[in-house]
Design brief:
InterPro entries: FAD-bind_Monooxygenase_sf (IPR051209), FAD/NAD-bd_sf (IPR036188). The chain is an alpha/beta fold. Helices cover about 30% and strands about 20% of the residues. Strands 1, 2, 3, 4, 5, 6, 17 and 18 form an 8-stranded mixed beta sheet that branches. The protein has a 5-stranded parallel beta sheet with strand order 7-16-8-9-12, covered by helices on one side. Strands 13-14-15 form a 3-stranded antiparallel beta sheet, with no helix packed on it. A hairpin with a 3-residue loop joins β13 and β14. It starts with 10 loop residues before the first strand and ends with a strand.
C-alpha cells in the first residue's frame, strides 16, 4: 500500500470501491438513509463500470430494461424492450446526477488492497501511486464480477503479430473494412459482436468451443404513448416491472432445475435453430449437448443469420495455439487473420479476490477463497468485519435480472452500515458457524441445479465448485436479505472514548 508521507487521513464512514451500477446504487441508498460521509473510489476517469467499458458494436443487455434498472430509480424513457450499452450508461449517469453523487467520487483511485485495523475498528484502503490512502469505518466492495478483462490463456498469444481486441476494451480506431477477422468465443458478447462484424469485415471466422442455447429476443421500440403513461403514472411502470419480474421468475422452473419446463425451453431453442438455420450440418454444429440453463442462455435473433452470411464461417476444431499470422487448430490448419477479437476471458473471482483483503488476525481472504469463494448471504465474510460485498459469492441469477439481486444486497448492507454508525459499533462480524451453515445449505441445494449437472462453464472453478450462482428463485434470494439478523453476527461496541479496546454487546 502507498501513502503520502507524513499525512494522517481522517476516518470516513464508508468507502465504496467501484463506480458502476453497484457502487452508485449503494451511494444512493446511503444518502436516502441519511448517510453522507462516504467516498466512491473509482480507478477509471468516468462512472459506469461494465457499461462504460463494454462499448463493442452491438453491445446491449439481454434482460428487459424495465427489469435491468433499480426500483428506486425508475426510468420511463427506455427506448426499447432491451437497451443498448449507450442508453444504459446514460441511465447510470442520470442517476448519479439526480442524486448528487459527483462530490463523492474520487476518480483515478485504483485500490491496491485493504487491511482491517482491529484495534481502531477501521479499514485502511491503499491507493496506487502517490495518492493519499483512505481510512474508513466500513467498506463496500462494489468492483463487480466482470470488472477485470483478460485475454484467455491460449499458447502463443504473445506470438501473434496482428491486431488483438478484447470485447471489454474495444478499439474504436481500428478499421475492419476489408480485413480478415477471427472471433474467439460464442457467448453473450460474441453473439452481439459477430452480426456487426460481418457487415464491415471482408471475412469473419467464428471459433466455437461449445455451442450455447439460443432463444429469440423480441426487441420492440417503446411507443411515445407508453413513455407518457409511465411519466404520468409511475404505478403503471411499477406494474410493468413486476410483470417482467414474475415472467422471468417462472423461467427458473426450466433453467435452474431440470424439469418438464426445461424441455420446453429446449424446444424453443431448437425451433429457433430450425427456423433460422437451414443447413443440417451447420444445425448439428450449433446444437448444444448439455441441458438448457447449464450455461448462460443466449438471447439473439441476429446471430444465426450472421453465421450464414457469405463472408462468415463457423470453425469448431479446437484451437491449438496462436501463431504469428493467425490461429492454428487441431486438424493442422492455420487460419490467418488481420485481427483477432476475444469475446471471452473475464477474470471472474470464483476463487481469490479482485484486490488483496486482509482481515482480523492477519487473515488473507484470497487464501481462504483459493478453492472457491464463499460468504454469508453473498454479502459478508466472517473474519472481515464491517466489509460488505455486492454481487458476492453465490448471488448470480440464471433466469432473472442481476439488478434485482444487487438491489437486495445494497439494501441489506446499507442497513448493516447504518447499524454500525448509529450504534457506534467497533465491529460487526459474521459468526463463523452461521456462515458455514448458510454455505453448506447453498452447496447442497446446488447439487440439484442444471449448473452442477456436468457441463463446464465460467460458473464453476476448475474442480467443479460453484461459487457463482444462487440455487433458487430471485424472490427467495431477496427475502433472505430483508432483515439484518444481529444474532448471526458478533457485535462489538466501542467505548465512549472510542479507544481501540472494545466490549461485546450482550
Amino acid at each position: 500500500m502507498s501513502n503520502t508521507a507524513g499525512t494522517h487521513p481522517r476516518t470516513i464512514d464508508v468507502a465504496i470501491i467501484g463506480g458502476g451500477f453497484a457502487g452508485i446504487g449503494a451511494a444512493i441508498r446511503l444518502k436516502q438513509r441519511g448517510i453522507h460521509d462516504f467516498v466512491i473510489l473509482e480507478r477509471g476517469t468516468a462512472i459506469g463500470g461494465t457499461w462504460r467499458d463494454n462499448t463493442y458494436p452491438g453491445a446491449a443487455c439481454d434482460i428487459p430494461s424495465r427489469l435491468y434498472s433499480y426500483s428506486f430509480a425508475p426510468n420511463p424513457e427506455w427506448s426499447h424492450t432491451y437497451s443498448g450499452s449507450d442508453e444504459i450508461l446514460g441511465y447510470i449517469q442520470t442517476m448519479s446526477a439526480e442524486f448528487g453523487l459527483a462530490p463523492h467520487f474520487r476518480f483515478g483511485h485504483n485500490v491496491t488492497g485493504i487491511v482491517f485495523d482491529e484495534g481502531a475498528g477501521r479499514w485502511d484502503v491503499g491507493i496506487e501511486g502517490d495518492t493519499e490512502n483512505v481510512r474508513a469505518r466500513t467498506v463496500v466492495l462494489a468492483s463487480g464480477p466482470l470488472a477485470n478483462a483478460g485475454f484467455p490463456n491460449i499458447p502463443g498469444i504473445d506470438d501473434y503479430a496482428g491486431h488483438k481486441i478484447h470485447s471489454a476494451r474495444w478499439d474504436h480506431d481500428y478499421d475492419f473494412t476489408g480485413k480478415k477477422v477471427a472471433v474467439i468465443g460464442t457467448g453473450a458478447s460474441a453473439v452481439q459482436i459477430v452480426p456487426e462484424l460481418v457487415e464491415r469485415a471482408a471475412s469473419v471466422k467464428v471459433f466455437q468451443r461449445t455451442p450455447g442455447w439460443v432463444l429469440p429476443r423480441v426487441n420492440r421500440r417503446t411507443s411515445p404513448v407508453t413513455k407518457e403513461l409511465f411519466r404520468r403514472v409511475p404505478a403503471a411502470e411499477r406494474l410493468s416491472r413486476q410483470a417482467w419480474f414474475y415472467g422471468h421468475e417462472s423461467v427458473a422452473l426450466g433453467v435452474v432445475w431440470k424439469s418438464p419446463l426445461t424441455r420446453v425451453v429446449e424446444l424453443v431453442g431448437r425451433a429457433q435453430l430450425r427456423r433460422q438455420v437451414k443447413d443440417p450440418w451447420l444445425r448439428r454444429q450449433l446444437t448444444p449437448e448439455f441441458r438448457a440453463g447449464c450455461k448462460r442462455l443466449l438471447m439473439t435473433d441476429d446471430y444465426y443469420p450472421a453465421l450464414q452470411r457469405d463472408n462468415c464461417k463457423l470453425v469448431t476444431w479446437p484451437i491449438v495455439r496462436l501463431a504469428e499470422r493467425g490461429i492454428r487448430t487441431a486438424e493442422g490448419v492455420e487460419h490467418q487473420a488481420d485481427c483477432i477479437v476475444f469475446a471471452t476471458g473475464f477474470e471472474v473471482s470464483k476463487a481469490g479476490t479482485p484486490i488483496p483483503i486482509v482481515g482480523r488476525d492477519g487473515r488473507v481472504l484470497a487464501q481462504e477463497w483459493s478453492r472457491g469463494a464463499y460468504a454469508y448471504k453473498s454479502v459478508a465474510v466472517s473474519g472481515y468485519p464491517n466489509l460488505f460485498l455486492t454481487f458476492g459469492p453465490n448471488s448470480g441469477p440464471g433466469h432473472n435480472s442481476a439488478l434485482v439481486y444487487m438491489e437486495a444486497q445494497i439494501d441489506y448492507l446499507v442497513g448493516a452500515i447504518d447499524t454500525v454508525l448509529r450504534e457506534d459499533l467497533h465491529m460487526l462480524d459474521v459468526r463463523q458457524e452461521r456462515q458455514d451453515r448458510h454455505n453448506a445449505a447453498i452447496q447442497r441445494r446446488l447439487t440439484a441445479t442444471t449448473w452442477n449437472s456436468g457441463c463446464r462453464s465460467w460458473y464453476l472453478t476448475e474442480d467443479g465448485f460453484n461459487a457463482t450462482m444462487y440455487p433458487g428463485f430471485a424472490t427467495q434470494y431477496v427475502n433472505q436479505l430483508r432483515t439484518l439478523e444481529l444474532d448471526d453476527y458478533e457485535v462489538v461496541a466501542r467505548r465512549a472514548d472510542h479507544e481501540a479496546d472494545a466490549i461485546p454487546i450482550a
